[in-house]
Amino acid sequence: MTDVILETKNLTREFKGFIAVNAVNLQVQRGHIHALIGPNGAGKTTCFNLLTKFLVPTSGQILFNGRDITASRPAQIARMGIIRSFQISAVFPHLSVLENVRIGLQRSLGTAFHFWKSEATLSQLNDRAMVLLEEVSLTEFADSITVDLPYGRKRALEIATTLAMEPELMLLDEPTQGMGHEDVARVTELIKKVAKGRTILMVEHNMGVVSGICDRISVLQRGAILAEGDYQTVSQNPQVLEAYMGSTAALEGAH
User: Fold this and answer.
1) Per-residue confidence (pLDDT) for residue 205, from 0 to 100
2) How many Cβ atoms sit within 10 Å of the Cβ of residue 248?
3) Among candidates 52, 56, 55, which has minimal Cα distance to 169?
């Protein structure tokens, strides 16, 4: 059996009688890129918020590496190695690209927010930061002020700061949202590159992105899992096509 890194058992969340996530049984295999897709209002973001402990489940269990983390807090699961891109990717707009990654590295060293540390101490982190910037193709932007970066490059920087936390499981929430075609292609390639030796669970609307890089796809509808499998299987499922109401062409033409 393939190694399961993250598993949910009957994960459920109700809001005043409305069931946003309904008995979801999810299994994310170690080393996979796994996508959570579905029409608007399907419960994808609520599911992500449950996994990262921003919401508490009404019932059900969440297991990480076989350990029950249902009652854990966001900071605890981050220390275990579950990192969600936005948790630490509120990048600091007026610091340089290098400084942003360095702060991510400080957190992983347990010296978080020691902003008063001398420049000499912090510069020890520069080599590691540059390696991460190289991994996301941002080396040439190291000294740029973050606010000046194009949108797609900012998302690449978010991924670099996420990598600085040394995640065992990266959760990417709509990584290509609001991007032009060129940026989407660049960030898709980037995700594929950084996935080597890591596990990624992502919420993504763009079927072209999902079809190109995902090992497994879970389709949510009205808070429940409608279908699961590789892109080929999911894209030919009549219920999935119906759920996307007329976006058959979007599913079929995504490749």
Assistant:
1) 80
2) 14
3) 52
Structure tokens at 224: 């429940």
What are the residues whose beta carbons fall under 8 Å from the beta carbon of 28, sequence distance 6 or more?
4, 5, 6, 7, 34, 169, 199, 201, 216
Provide the residue ranges of all domains of the chain, joining segments of one domain with +. 1-71+171-180+199-255, 82-166
- The helix/strand/coil state of 8 is strand
Architecture of domain 1-71+171-180+199-255: 3-Layer(aba) Sandwich (3.40)
Q: Please check whether residue 34 is in contact with residue 216, taking contact to mean a CB–CB distance below 8 angstroms.
A: yes
- What size, in residues, is the chain? 255
pLDDT along the chain (255 residues), means of 10: 88 94 96 92 92 94 96 91 73 91 77 56 82 94 94 90 91 88 90 92 88 93 94 90 62 49
Q: What is the topology classification, in CATH, of domain 82-166?
A: Rossmann fold (3.40.50)
Instruction: Determine the pLDDT at residue 216.
Output: 96
Nearest-Å Rg of the Cα atoms of the chain is 19
